[in-house]
Amino acid sequence: MNRGEIISAIGSILRDTMQLPHAGAFAPTARLNEDLYLDSVLILQIFLNLELEYGLPAVDEIINREDIVTVEDLAGLFADAPAEPISPAAVPEGDGVHGEAYYDIKVHCFVSCVCEGLKKAGLDHRPFYFGVWDADFAVSEQFELLYHTPAISQEFFRSWFETLYGAEVREWYDHGRSKEENLSTMLDLIERRGETGYVMVMVDLFHLPERENKFNQNPFPHYLMIETSGDPEIWNVLDPDYRWQGQIERAKIINAMMQPSVAGGYVFDRSEARAPVDEDLRDYFHASFHPRGNPLVDAVRRIVAAHLDGPPRLQLPALASAVRELPVISIRKYAYEHGFAFFWRALKLPSAEFDIWCDEIEALFQELKSLHYACMKLSQTRDHNFAADVFKRLDNAERIEGRIKNKLQEVFGLWCESRGIAASAAPLARGVSR
Asked: What residues are paired with 203 via a beta bridge?
């Protein structure tokens, strides 16, 4: 198929197969995210239908491309020569792991919010990301992977933030009170916010179309930080996780906060923060680190097995929906890079070796993305022969993450030795253990 034919096929898939609500905006130059509202999962769905309906196989190099913006870009992956792996952008001299301009990973909205305060206070926020690489998620009774449920709280992070940095993070949202009562509390806190204070609120990002919803989730619980502006009808909004700040109408924020899908909010003051002591950092690492087993891979393995061999109500066509939130959770694996960066800088280890481990972390994320595609293919075809590729991807991801964890544990031990502290955790670590 030539490029024009592939573009036409993509249009047919969007309109007829996927019945995309925004298919009316389809054009060769239409932007996948901004115009067609396609997230990473829906783009994988296009790849899958191009393979199954038109015989255009989506190899890993295609699945893992991150530089496609328009429909033409997407079609070019199949019409042109086999896609070349994307080379990492060159890092200017002095901007590597030991430089001031080291790239800042954002992969967890609550953590990104409190870390924004740490950065403004001149404190190193990177070790707080220890808790993110295996942050809590859930598997429902229907064997669905869920990044958020009412049972998942921020208590682990809230408690450890106070232990490590000494700043109180107070939950202002009272789950025993009505939405209206909590709204009244929030309005008062926003009005009384000091110069170094922050008011965090959980909103349903699906109801804020002004903000990026890159995972196309509905609902999409997400923490933002709010303050007043010069206009009483407009609020200043800071979204550290998506590196965005700007102004949004007060009424729209309130509407997103009042949705039944969300409930949560915190306040903290960066002026209370101090640098953590080494023993607390050590204990936090142990509380966050799973030396044996990889919870996400283990969970997906259980979900796939349940849909293959479980009760009759769990059918293969439901597998794609069951793993739909995998990208929201797998992106947290980039938090490993913050762990490596913290120890590398403290130990003054060679930047070149750090880059090698960043490549391993990238390989893990891409393998999880390929795993997601393999699950979707197994689900849509209902062909048990494709299960072998799913389990192969699971095994590959487990091996890669095992290597990452082994190295991270090694440099953690070196860091403890350099600080003159025992590598083992304290008998009663402060903070909340898993």
From this structure: 222
Q: What is the pTM of this model?
A: 0.87
Encode 305-341 in three state secondary structure.
HHHHHCCCCCCHHHHHHHCCCHHHHHHHHHHHHHHHH
Instruction: Tell me the C-alpha distance between 88 and 73, whole Å.
Output: 19
Token pair listed for 9 = 């096929």
CB of 145 closer than 8 Å to CB of 139:
yes
Helix, strand, coil tally for the chain in percent (to 5)? 55, 10, 40
d(CA 336, CA 108): 13
Cα Rg of the chain (Å, integer): 23
Q: Over the stretch 44-61, which tens digit does the pLDDT of each residue have?
A: 999 999 999 999 998 998
By CB atoms closer than 10 A (0-12, 13-18, 19+), residue 261 is middle
In terms of Cα–Cα distance, which of 87, 91, 114, 93 is closest to 103? Answer: 91
Domain extents in the chain = 3-79
In the Cβ-directed half-sphere of 168, how many Cα atoms lie within 13 Å?
Answer: 4
Predicted pLDDT of residue 80 = 64
77-115 pLDDT, tens digit each: 998 644 444 444 444 444 566 655 455 666 899 999 999
Helices 387-419 and 295-309 cross at an angle (nearest 10°) of 160
Give CATH for domain 3-79. Answer: 1.10.1200.10
pLDDT digits (tens, 9 = 90+) for 337-382: 999 999 999 999 999 999 999 999 999 999 999 999 999 999 999 9
Entry field: residues in the chain: 434
The three-state secondary structure class of 177 is coil
251 within 8 A of 231, measured Cβ to Cβ = no
